[in-house]
Design brief:
Radius of gyration: 18 Å
Distance between the termini: 51 Å
Shape: elongated
Largest sheet: 5 strands, antiparallel
Number of helices: 1
Strand content: 35-45%
Helix content: 10-25%
Number of strands: 10
Length: 139
């Protein structure tokens, strides 16, 4: 009986720890998918003004879902009214990404957009997923 209780207590601690880690990240990013590219296991948070420049911090796994097409994949992130920033993956692979985006002229980030794309080269337009838009609820 003691072994069962110890096992249940250990499982409870693990679930609590994983829930706390997710809560620290704010929210999950739904899987983003486009032909040949996918962004999975994503999460984001808006940092407060005194933490990491008040950045929009995000993480996830970028996957080249069509390794034989000869094209690379990337994540696009845009904050406030700035231009889109590209974060490339690796052809024929999946890579973990973790980045922060912020506006140096502001104390915190208020609005962010994110999407995943396949880079089809200069002769064909890239294909991208839908754009997710996030607004900092605390500001």
């Amino acid at each position: 009986m003691k072994k069962v209780l110890v096992g249940i207590a250990a499982a409870g601690l693990m679930l609590t720890a994983s829930g706390t880690a997710l809560a620290a990240w704010g929210s999950t990013i739904p899987n983003l998918k486009s032909s040949g590219a996918e962004f999975v296991n994503g999460a984001y948070k808006f940092n407060p003004p005194a933490t990491n420049h008040g950045a929009f911090e995000w993480r996830g796994r970028l996957v080249d879902t069509d390794p034989n097409d000869g094209h690379n994949v990337y994540v696009l992130v845009r904050i406030e009214a700035h231009d889109w920033v590209r974060y490339y993956g690796k052809q024929k692979r999946a890579v973990d990404l973790h980045h922060s985006n912020w506006d140096g002229a502001q104390m915190y980030t208020h609005k962010a957009k994110i999407k995943v794309c396949r880079d089809r080269g200069s002769l064909h337009p890239d294909n991208c997923s839908r754009t997710l838009i996030y607004t900092n609820p605390g500001r």
